[in-house]
Design goal:
Length: 371
Amino acid sequence: MSKLFSPITLSAAEGTGLTLRNRAFVAPMCQYSADGEDGVATSWHLQHYGSFAAGGFSLVVVEATGVLPEGRISPRCLGIYDEPTEAAHARIVEMAHGLGAAAGLQIGHAGGKGSTYPTLPGFDAGTVPVSEGGWATFGPTDKAVFPGLADPIALDREGIERVIEGFADAARRADRAGYDVLQIHAAHGYLIHQFLSPLTNTRTDEYGGSEENRTRLLREVTAAVREAWPAHKPLGIRVSATDWDEAGWTVQATATIVRTLAEDHGITWVDVSSGGLVAGSKIPVGPGYQVPLALELTQALADLDVAVSAVGLVANPDQAETILVTGQAHAISIGRAALGNPHWASAAAVALRAATPDAHIQPQYWRAHWS
Ligand code: FNR
């Protein structure tokens, strides 16, 4: 019996939560393919997310989606802040549901890493100027996050309120669009992570300085999202569990804040990534290199009802199975391996002898494996 292909329930603040058909999730991955520059999903997104749903994954997490226009990573990134963006998400959800997968949405604000060129072949790097469809960015301070990015505007109290309300409004829209799970993006050097880390948050007000102050924005965002997102639907978070820098954000601080968010605001799922804030940090990249971070959170949160998913260079079915069987995480998020093969989960189910003509394989495709 494969652990990867056993069901998992993501709990919710109220009710029975959401039971998923297996433990292979799709990691959120920006496609830089919105319609024009208005943040609206296109037919690309329908086929892209649909193919993962048809490919046996249990939970398809849609890419970083800006809660405000200026919260998008690039002018070609998705948003969820008005009727057209919301309606386009509803089509993605309908597609995923029709193919037997649950649909999750990652909502975020890019902060000082917003308004960048798409990370696609043929595009420049760095900040898109306002004259080319970019926008002024915002951050905890007015210092650029990376060399080559424009200096942001330091958020004042009113700006922080706009961010928090943006997250709450996005949660309401995601619910209306039919999403089953919401994931708050607190990772990879974007706005919330910029506030969490002492490397980028040198504010002297109640949002900077102590760990209590640096985590305040995340706690306020999560509280507002919790109010707006139905109690019967699971609420998750994606974290960078370390900056890979001695002076930066740590796995201990991550465990502390996730515990608080779970106890106070009903967070029931944490997806454990790392890095993204500091250019040039020395990251020991290799197969499963972030799994030890997932293990630390699995152990630190063992007394809570929080599912921990591991991510990062987990590309092999046996590797994924071993991580779960040895209790290092409860689920696996698959990124680039899913881009290479959108049917990765079905193929993994076959490899692990967990597939049957009516489980983890799209029935129309059963003859690929049994004749
Ligand atoms: C990403 N990643 C990412 N992460 C995130 O939290 N939100 C996002 O929108 C994106 N976008 C994105 C686009 C593309 C093209 C890639 C390749 C990656 C990171 C991704 O979710 C994952 O954490 C990493 O790719 C590591 O996992 P894999 O790819 O080694 O399985």
